[in-house]
Design goal:
disordered N terminus, 10 helices, globular, mainly alpha
């Protein structure tokens, strides 16, 4: 009888772990992450095929204020608005939403050149050419200053940014793997944020160090890809509320 009770207690323990709030949150975020990655893959493939096989559509897709950039703006605006609405109406933790909303707002300001495109004012000049019309220009400024000091320093900056971005994406994918393997982790609950930062970091590497129309198109696509995990992260928060096992 003692053996039977011990086996039953083990089964109950396994069942309780499977339905614990942390496990359910991680599993829920895993589903959202899979949907986000599938959306990124579909959108990237569609845009690539359109650019390759429909040259007439290419400028509409990839030009400044083109379809992809406008889609990025729409996703970021939806993420910011969603973060505000959910934080007001939802009873769960608001700090993750605050972080996501601030990230989305900063990037939305980048995409609209701090509002200069909306209101028509002239941004200040940027060292080395161009205009200081976004947070990303601070990285460009640092890169140009370091390049003028010594080119190696500029490439070190670009390399560090690339390594950090790839590391962030690999970390996000590792958390996704843990979620698929049904290993709960509080970090897995925020894997979409890490994925977002990884994508936006890769876009900034291209923006900082590359001067090519092809790479500029890749940058626009990466920025759109980055906006999707952020949007899905905000959308997933209401379903991530810990479950109270009262009674």
């Amino acid at each position: 009888m003692a053996v039977i009770r011990e086996e039953n207690s083990v089964e109950v323990g396994i069942g309780a772990a499977a339905f614990s709030p942390l496990f359910l949150q991680s599993r829920n975020q895993t589903r959202w992450a899979i949907v986000a990655l599938a959306s990124i893959g579909i959108c990237t493939l569609t845009a690539t095929l359109a650019a390759v096989f429909a040259p007439g559509v290419r400028p509409l897709l990839l030009q400044e204020d083109g379809i992809i950039e406008m889609a990025s703006v729409a996703c970021l605006a939806a993420a910011v608005l969603g973060a505000v609405v959910v934080s007001v109406t939802w009873g769960g933790p608001r700090l993750p939403l605050l972080v996501a909303g601030l990230i989305g707002f900063a990037e939305l300001m980048d995409e609209t050149s701090f509002g200069s495109r909306l209101f028509g004012f002239q941004p200040p000049a940027l060292y080395g050419g161009g205009e200081l019309d976004g947070f990303h220009d601070l990285l460009i400024l640092a890169y140009r200053v370091l390049r003028d000091i010594h080119p190696t320093l500029a490439w070190i900056l670009a390399g560090l940014l690339l390594a950090a971005s790839l590391g962030m994406m690999m970390f996000a994918l590792s958390q996704l793997g843990r979620g698929v393997g049904e290993k709960s982790s509080w970090l897995a609950d925020h894997m979409l944020i890490f994925l977002h930062i990884g994508f936006i970091g890769l876009a900034q590497v291209i923006d900082v160090a590359a001067e090519s129309k092809v790479l500029s198109a890749v940058e626009e696509m990466l920025e759109f890809n980055a906006s999707l995990p952020l949007l899905f992260y905000v959308a997933s928060r209401p379903s991530s509320r810990p479950i109270n096992n009262a009674g």
